[in-house]
Amino acid sequence: MELKGKNVIYVGGYGGIGKSCVEAFLKKSVKSLLIFDLMSNDEFLKYLQNTYKNSFIDYIHLDLAKSETIKDAFKKAKDLIGSFDIVVNGSGVAVEDQIDLLVQINLAGPMQSSAIAMDYMSKANGGNGGCIVNMSSTANGGNGGCIVNMSSTVGLNPTDFCCFYGATKSGVIHFTTALAQPMYFNKTGVSFITVCPGVTKSPMNMIVEKKSFSIKFRPQDVNMHENVIEQTSDALAENLMTIIENGPNGSIWAVHDGQSFKVELPEIWGPTLRYRTDK
After folding, report:
1. Residue 93 near residue 17 (C-beta atoms within 8 A)
2. pLDDT one-digit tens code per residue, 123-181
3. Counting beta carbons within 10 angstroms of the beta carbon of residue 148, is it exposed (0 to 12), middle (13 to 18) or buried (19 or more)?
4. What is the spatial distance between Cα 80 and Cα 75, in angstroms, rounded to a whole number?
5. Which of 18, 36, 71, 83 gives the lowest tally of CB atoms within 10 Å of its CB?
6. Left (φ > 0), alpha (ψ -120 to 50) or beta: where does 142 sit?
7. CA-to-CA distance for 20 and 264, rounded, in angstroms?
8. What's the CA gap between 148 and 175, in Å, rounded?
9. What is the DSSP letter of 23?
10. How far apart (Å, rounded) are the C-alpha atoms in residues 161 and 6?
11. Diameter of the chain by CA atoms?
12. What are 30-51's pLDDT values in tens digits?
């Protein structure tokens, strides 16, 4: 999927990782880029607008803890740029001492954002189809778009360090992959891809260190910030562009140490539903 000339929405574009990712999109000469986030960042927005003058760039307020603001944000985006080609759900928090907020921002919010974006992008509703970055077998391409949901490598395996955060990210992989299946894709034309970053240098890592449920259980001399190898947000952003350009619908990608690779999850139980054949 060629990114040049596409309309992009990035949810969480003012975060540490988000800043690198939105600029990576602009370097690809996208037509429009809208940043959805809780708080505005006028200085960064002006920098982007002054640097990438051939792209339309703007900010729209969104609070993933309030579903009505998600609906309002997409309606405003529709009024501003018309159709969407790419939607990236990139917001996330690591406050394991606030479980309700953790689940709302990391799981329920992306669920609602994906569902609303899917409705706007669906060819059944007059949209162009699209790609919501998750998993499937139909390649991105042509004039379709993409909804990319950012999970984490800690969502791929149970992790003692951040057990609750990892559970929300595992949920992102599950619902994104499910929405990429033919039952949805054949009607909507919207594809999904899941991206699972490994440890990436960002301000959130300090929060993980302080707000992790494991803090009172792990050895006191273990300092994640000092001992864990971190990839840069720019390296993650570059890999994200490649994944969107080349990744198939329904695929799951890990980005670790600046390298991306496709993840194949085994089918442990299936088919989930069995139908009667005696009627």
Report:
1. no
2. 888 776 655 543 233 334 334 578 999 999 999 999 888 899 999 999 999 999 999 99
3. buried
4. 9
5. 71
6. left
7. 27
8. 12
9. H
10. 39
11. 67
12. 999 999 999 999 999 999 999 9
